[in-house]
Write a structure and sequence with these properties.
heterotrimer, A mainly alpha (271), B alpha/beta (419), C mainly alpha (300), A: mainly alpha, MetI-like fold, 14 helices, 0% strand, C: mainly alpha, two-stranded antiparallel ribbon, 1% strand
């Protein structure tokens, strides 16, 4: 399957549609608040970016602290979710045990409960353990996810041939060794995608950190709420903050994105 | 090797940075730490520094979030009985949610509130109190109310442009409507309405009634002639074709200021900032006149002391100091937040205050006049939602989705469902 | 003998051990909120009042009579159909293209995810400018061809359409990436063989890729049904923060209604009942879609 020229043309259009709002965030961030009233809206960079950056990194904003907190929390959450999801996904997709289907259905069902109202009971819970205002409070509720387990189950069902596992067992491999040497390598593309999506949602988690953390010890999203305070919200400042908040995401994605590469199965079979 | 070193130092930095994260307040190194949660440009930053100089044993830490987030957060913290700051600011539009649960706050009357009461106009003081008379909030700023208008468009339409003359055009809302009809009769190009949309007019008229949504702690939307008057006035203004039908805060609304889609908007003091920003290139074309009916207010905040706080006494001292006239004057000078203390209204800080953008209008005088004579009106816990239901009803009439009577009937049904 | 026992123990216990971390953590932090909301839904419970009275299933019976709830459900289902179906179809196509041997593949792959990471504030501004009535870009283009202009927010069909466009824009790349991961596991020699047989790219997609990634397709159908039923950000942003989804509730979704009940009216009891009703409805919707997807498999 070699791509043709028009494939690249099509991809460029898609990329343009995807990139434009991001570019536009920077455009707005480089102007001031009057940008909203302009018809037609400006499409090129203005000269106010440095000024807005200075304000976004101002000492009362705690931007650096927010970035560090979010980076720590999102990394721990991503690692934990991907690992436990792969482990459970393996059990659901490839192992035989009683009650498997019922348990999987239960896990899927938990995703269907709207989460907006969980904020209050969860806060009471964290408050009982005296975790309010600390980083573990934004990490613990997200250490595992039904989404991840379901995703990995579905992926591993087709990605790892059952014969491969049986062959390994015949060689005397224990289950954990099969997981380590057969399943984990095969899971790499899916783990990278799940990692990206998990990091993304952990990074963007908004209402919960806002309630459980505070402006002195914030996450990135709470910092953005700080920036958009004021009766007259300064959109250029908000988008400056939002743009700063996206940069780490792009770095993480580029790192993980390289792992979504083909040919892994062939490699696994050979070894 | 170098990578590992960088990684290690990053982790170390992160641990240090997050280690200090216990959120509570209390004694640290002999100092009392007071937390104050606000939601915007309270303009207190320099005041904290000043206060800490005056009181070396106090450390003040401010927690700022977006208005809406701040209030939802506070409600959650009150419901969970933990997490609130020593001082929590609340905004007028949300105040009813909190004055209806006075048990969660310290009563200002127990913390020397009675001694400073005379600072505020009666209505401001009352709006920070519960129906049973527990005072939970001390007033910080107010919005006031005036009528911003496009002087140039008025003159083009054959109306007077001078602000004194314009104020005389509309002593009442009916006069405002007939002025609007004259204005629209001129059919200026690009102009689609005399005012933006129903929301601000409705709120302004309602705010001038002696009784609003609530009579005491009872909702009286169905029987109170005041609410009906606000409704009818707005409906009349829309049916004669004065509304530009733009939704407040939408993109068309923002652009409307610059493009001159509408010629007037009832404007509290904070809205002048929005007009200045969006209509940047039209400096001098906008001007400010009195609001029809003469009085009004939209916006303004209070400082409260949640009972979760453990330093009520020290917090009360700080809050009283922040809301005192001298400090309100400082905030007005640096941030423009309009003071709520009547004593300041005779001060040169206010009386001499003019806005260059608005054609040198003496906005200090205009806003203080609108605020000083206002009648107190009780805001209950559901005021905000009920107003949303009514404004939705007005919007349905504007968009031609429902007749005025049908829409009013649906509003009554919606309000009943809210109670 | 001991080895054998150990082997059997490994075989029997491992699966439970592997799913245990999920359940331990879920019981610790996930279960309590669920039970708590169920308990609250049986009460007359507002966040601003101290006393909570037990009222049994009254909240649920009232919800069944609540026309705004049904209105929100109907809006949600319309948006669901207009967003999920095109979104998943486009995502498969996009993933298929991204799975080719592209130059600069990481760039292309990551760029499709950008709509999903762009700040909601920016999304609000851009779509506000696109769908503005007086000065919006789309109406401007319509005006060039004398096609009149559309009041996007006021109309019911137009607002549902506009919101669906926003959802499709934000989530197509997200799903494409999920499909792409699954496509990585399809042995490449299958495609090479098909190419030699002269199969077109589209035929390869239909005959090789789609059958091979069926479990993942089922996954996305279920997940995007759940996501579609819970859609909140897009209607909220489209309505400039209006919790009622327009003056006539013309684009209020159930999640938005739930949000209005919980965090504008603070009627926590009623909101909790709505949340559990929503759960049941999502369960039904996901079930129907699952069966539908399975039938499609049977038909091929």
């Amino acid at each position: 399957m070699k791509p043709r020229k028009r494939t690249y043309l099509f991809l460029s259009v898609v990329a343009l549609l995807s990139l434009f709002p991001f570019y536009y965030s920077i455009v707005v961030a480089s102007h001031d608040n009057s940008v909203l009233g302009q018809v037609p809206p400006p499409l090129t960079l203005g000269g106010n970016l440095m000024n807005n950056l200075e304000r976004a990194f101002g000492e009362d904003v705690h931007m650096v602290q927010g970035l560090i907190n979010s980076l720590l929390a999102s990394s721990v959450i991503t690692f934990s979710q991907v690992f436990f999801a792969t482990l459970a996904g393996f059990a659901f997709a490839k192992l035989k045990w009683r009650g498997k289907n019922a348990v999987l259905l239960f896990i899927i069902a938990t995703m269907m409960v709207p989460t907006q109202l969980a904020v209050i009971p969860l806060f009471i819970l964290m408050s009982n353990y005296e975790l309010v205002g600390t980083l573990p409070a934004v990490i613990i509720p997200f250490l595992v996810s039904a989404f991840g387990v379901f995703f990995m189950t579905q992926y591993l069902t087709t990605a790892v041939p059952t014969e491969l596992i049986e062959a390994a067992r015949a060689d005397g491999c224990t289950t954990i060794r099969i997981f380590w040497h057969v399943v984990l390598p095969a899971a790499r593309p899916a783990a990278a995608v799940l990692g990206i999506l998990t990091f993304l949602s952990a990074w963007n988690e908004f209402f919960w950190p806002l309630v459980v953390m505070n402006a002195e010890n914030p996450t990135v999203q709470t910092v953005l709420s700080n920036l958009s305070s004021g009766r007259v919200a300064d959109v250029s400042l908000i988008l400056t903050g939002a743009t700063i908040a996206i940069v780490p995401l792009i770095i993480v994605f580029s790192l993980l994105g390289k792992h979504i590469i083909g040919g892994i199965m062939q490699g696994a079979v050979k070894s | 090797m170098r990578k590992a070193a960088i990684a290690a130092s990053l982790v170390a930095a992160a641990l240090i940075a997050s280690g200090c994260g216990s959120g509570g307040s209390g004694e640290q190194g002999g100092k009392t730490k007071l937390t104050i949660a606000t939601f915007g440009d309270f303009g207190y930053k320099d005041l904290y520094t000043e206060y800490m100089k005056l009181h070396p044993d106090i450390e003040v830490v401010e927690r700022i979030t977006k208005t809406e987030d701040h209030h939802k957060n506070l409600i959650t913290h009150l419901a969970a009985n933990s997490g609130a700051s020593d001082i929590e600011a609340i905004e007028e539009g949300w105040a009813g949610q909190f004055t209806s649960q006075p048990g969660k706050f310290y009563n200002w009357m127990d913390y020397g509130g009675g001694d400073v009461k005379a600072q505020w106009p009666e209505w401001k003081w009352r709006a920070g109190s519960s129906a049973s008379g527990v005072v939970i909030g001390l007033g910080t700023d107010v919005g006031g109310m005036a009528m911003c208008y496009r002087k140039d468009l008025f003159e083009k339409a054959g109306l007077p442009g001078d602000r004194e003359a314009v104020s005389k055009l509309w002593p009442t809302w009916d006069d405002y409507i007939s002025t609007g009809q004259k204005f629209m009769g001129a059919k200026l190009p690009g102009v689609t309405g005399f005012f933006d949309g129903p929301q601000v007019i409705y709120r302004s008229v309602l705010g001038q009634q002696p009784i609003g949504i609530y009579d005491g702690d009872k909702v009286v939307v169905d029987t109170n002639p005041g609410v009906k008057k606000a409704w009818d006035t707005t409906v009349k203004a829309m049916t004669v074709g004065l509304s530009a039908k733009v939704e407040a805060w939408s993109q068309d609304w923002n652009a409307g200021f610059a493009k001159g889609t509408f010629a007037t908007i009832a404007c509290p003091s904070w809205m002048t900032t929005i007009i200045q920003e969006q209509a940047k290139e039209h400096a001098g074309k906008w001007d400010i006149a009195d609001i029809p009916g003469g009085t009004g207010n939209w916006g303004g905040s209070y400082l409260t002391l949640p009972k979760q706080g453990k330093n009520a006494k020290a917090a009360a001292e700080l809050a009283k100091w922040l809301t005192a006239p001298e400090q309100q004057a400082k905030v007005f000078r640096t941030k423009g937040n309009f003071p709520s203390t009547v004593t300041l209204y005779k001060d040169a800080v206010i009386t001499d205050y003019k806005s260059a953008f608005f054609n040198n209008a003496p906005i200090g005088q205009i806003y203080s006049k609108s605020v000083a004579t206002m009648v107190p009106q009780f805001m209950g816990p559901k005021s905000g939602d009920i107003n949303t239901a009514i404004i939705n009803g007005l919007t349905r009439v504007q968009d031609g989705k429902q007749g005025a009577d049908d829409s009013w009937a649906q509003v009554q049904k919606d309000v009943k469902a809210l109670l | 003998m001991f080895r054998h026992k150990l082997y059997r123990l490994d075989l029997k216990a491992s699966p439970y051990l592997y799913v245990a971390p999920f359940f331990v953590l879920f019981l610790a932090v996930g279960m309590f909120p669920l039970v708590y909301t169920a308990w609250v839904s049986m009460h007359d419970w507002t966040l601003v009042e101290e006393s909570h009275t037990w009222i049994g299933f009254t909240n649920y019976t009232e919800l069944l009579k609540d026309e705004y709830f049904w209105n929100a459900l109907s809006n949600t289902l319309q948006i669901l159909v207009l967003s999920s179906v095109p979104q998943l179809l486009m995502a498969i196509g996009l993933a298929h293209i991204l799975n080719m041997r592209l130059k600069g593949s990481t760039f292309w792959r990551m760029s499709v995810l950008l709509p999903n990471i762009t700040s909601v504030v920016a999304v609000a501004i851009i779509f506000g400018q696109l769908f503005g009535r007086d000065f919006g870009l789309i109406n401007w283009v319509l005006g060039l061809f004398d096609l009149g202009h559309i009041d996007w927010r006021t109309g019911e069909a137009s607002s549902v359409f506009a919101i669906s466009v926003m959802i499709n824009w934000r989530w197509t790349g997200y799903n494409a990436l999920i499909y792409l991961a699954a496509m990585q596991a399809v042995p490449k020699d299958l495609y090479d063989a098909a190419s030699l047989d002269g199969a077109t790219s589209f035929q390869q997609l239909r005959r090789i890729t789609i059958p091979a990634i069926r479990p993942t397709i089922i996954f996305t159908v279920i997940v995007s049904t759940i996501g579609g039923m819970q859609v909140l950000a897009e209607p909220l942003v489209f309505g400039v923060g209006s919790m009622t989804g327009g003056a006539d509730r013309q684009f209020q979704t159930i999640a938005l209604y739930l949000y209005e009940l919980g965090f504008s009216r603070f009627d926590f009891g009623y909101a909790s009942a709505a949340a559990w009703m929503m759960f049941v409805i999502i369960l039904i919707a996901a079930g129907v879609n699952y069966l539908f997807t399975r039938r499609m498999r049977g038909a091929e």
